[in-house]
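This is your field. Pick holes in the following sequence-structure pair:
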Amino acid sequence: MTESLPVMSRRGPLALLHTSPLHVPVFDALRDEDHQGLELRHVVVEELLARARREGPEAVADEVRALLDQAVAEGAGAVLCTCSTIGDVAERAGAGAVPVLRVDRPMAAAAVALGPRVVVLATVESTLEPTVALVEEEARSAGRPVDIRTVLVDGAWALFEAGDIDGSAHVVAAAADAVTDADAIILAQASMTPAQRLAMTSTPVLSSPRLGLAAGAEAARDSRPGRVAHVR
């Protein structure tokens, strides 16, 4: 049976869970461009990605859940996980008190809408499997066929970790330009976003931060006094 229950307003800030401090200025800049007045609270835990790469994303599920609980306790209206490797873990760990979103879901939906041939570029191998699963999920939800290919861009992550953001972006852009027979190219990690403006291919190249932040901003502002949530 479905009941309508009153929901308290949760106009709190948007908490962002990062695995690199380099994401902080990226999302701050996007907030200033598109969502003036939105309060962002950044939580950076680099070890989450390092451990997920070593042991698999499920290995950090308890830590992610604790961080989500802390964000809610501190008043977050929604949480946006900006790491594609642990995005699925974060979504599933959300307790339901506030929305928990993964930054790459809107990007995956946009890619599926462009056509069935989707190429996923990543700079760390641990990102490929969860991103492919996400694109397949969005295709099923939309009732669309999808044919996914993956490319691991050698050398780009080492440059990024060393602080050579421009060098990493050029390597990723070259990989995007080498793609043929695709309807959409996905840059699977937020760290790959600078390559979007460098790529010369005519195929749409999609990145997650702008689309993901828009979804997070909407979620953080979604509840209003008097709205109801429907639960089973």
In short: The first strand starts at residue 3 and ends at 6. DSSP finds nine helices and ten strands in the chain. Residues 112 and 139 are 6 Å apart (CA to CA). The first helix runs from residue 23 to 34.
